[in-house]
Amino acid sequence: MEQMMTDDLLANAFERLLQTHCTPAHVREIENGASPDSLWEEIEQSGFADALISEDKGGADLALRDVFPLVLLCGRYALPVPMAETMVARAAYAAAGQEAPKGPILWSDDIPFETPEVRRSTGALVAAGLLVGALERAFEITVEFANDRTQFGRPIGKFQAVQQLLSIMAEQTFAAKMAAEIGFASDGWMPDPLLAALAKSRTSDAAALVSAHAHAVHGAIGATEEYDLQLFTRRIQQGRTAFGSETYWNRLIGETVIASDEEGVLDNIRQSLSA
User: Fold this and answer.
1) Residue 8 has pLDDT above 80, yes or no
2) Count of domains in the chain?
3) Does residue 141 form part of some domain?
4) Domain check: are 155 and 250 in the same one?
5) Are residues 256 and 146 both part of a single domain?
């Protein structure tokens, strides 16, 4: 219970910052060439980017599982600066005994991960968390539209065909969130490789359906620049292939299961969770 309250306080504080400084209008301005410096300065001063660093090095000494809500919020608000990536990159620099570069850190080969495999699985997990946030927001926007848009005298959300699309979106989004949360189940700053693979596989798999169904419900309006949906579906499509799509990670999961002493995928996941 205490951990849940801590997570809620952390997420609420970060969301208040995003509600003020990362509205869809702000996102569009930055995408159209405006400077992101003021937005990044707000994030820097808040201390969230140092959440995974130990207290003796100026951070909050949180674990990967603790920052899952923060990564989701970065996706939910289409944050146009790499806060989630910087948070993990700074933890990697700290773990290697190196000083991180100032400012936001784009994912690059300079980050001192132990191996290329650790880099890829960690990057994939961050991408999975961002994906879930974008999936949730795209679903919410679609439900709102279905309730507001009328056809033949009633909201389109009352029609069975639209309800079916919405139910599939809800199922896929919830499953993706569960998988990502499992991927973030680490007491340190690095994920378990198998759990990270599971997270990225399932969220990428959900991305294609959720994005397609969102645009199917909206029709042409969903793709227009001035409508918020495209801010999230563009990120969903980008996130789906970041660090490998579901095909890549499904193959890795299969190879891991075949090479292990456990009998199947679930047994391997249970083993990773209990380790």
Assistant:
1) yes
2) 2
3) yes
4) yes
5) yes
